[in-house]
Here is the input.
Amino acid sequence: MPRAPALLLLTLIGAGALILSVSLGSSGDDPVALWGRALAGEDPVARAILLDLRLPRALAAFATGAVLALAGVLMQVLLRNPLADPYVLGVSGGAAVAAVGAMLLGLGGLWVDLGAAGGALGAMLLVFALAHGPGGWTPTRLLLTGVVVAAGCSAAISVMLATAGEAPVRGMLAWLMGDLSYSGMPWSALVVLALALPACLALARPLDVLSRGDLQAAVLGLPVREVRLALYFGGSVLTAVAVTTAGSIGFVGLVTPHLVRLALGSSHRVVVPASALLGGTLLVLADLAARTVVAPRQLPVGALTALIGVPLFLVLMRRERRIG
Here is the structure.
């Protein structure tokens, strides 16, 4: 498919997903009638359901999915590994340790978000510091350090869950599996997305060059070390924003860039915006399913993305093997 029509199609699908997510819910009301009452001003409850409850959650889901997809694009180029995802360097682990620790202390709301942001920042700086060695840091050293830090964070979370009481464990598990129920303020994620998308587009040519290898990038005059630093900190910040907004949601940042590259090629002038649109759309639809499949109960959206992402990723791997 030509690239411009493909981006237009993804934009229309994303807008349709947002409208669908705002229109449907666990209340069981007819969407057309609900919108009619809300727009006519006859029913303040209908207006509150659509604009105060569903719309912020749908926007948070789209921004989180788009940010995760952008982080996945950056991490896969940074580590020169198609299996890299936004969580591979331990940033989400640090956020989870701090967020679960805040819940264990009986804190909630803003304190959990601040803890997650601080934990993500701490993990990012820790991995960056530990990955340094003779000759600087390499993708392999960075990846191994991130895996070790993530494993340590996972162990710490297990200890916290084992020592926590029964009541707070439910909230901890919901956060760890990804939960958009409390994302009533999506504006921070939307602002970060609005800033990150043009910044990643500006890096499209360096991303194309760097994906061919450090040596060729250096020959072409690319400042490899500076670009790698920008990718590391940019991808880590995007991951931190996503985790702070919605908890740990897997496979969106891993699978989305693969789907885009298979369909539209590997030029990052297309991969960056298409991944953001597709990632946002996928998470909006996953969150809609999480709210409605077993309504009035809600499923963890991170579990749904994993259930969808695992078979999809296996299909992609099988297809690439046949092509190769």
Observations:
- The first helix runs from residue 3 to 23.
- Residues 3-323 form a domain with the ABC transporter involved in vitamin B12 uptake, BtuC fold (CATH 1.10.3470.10).
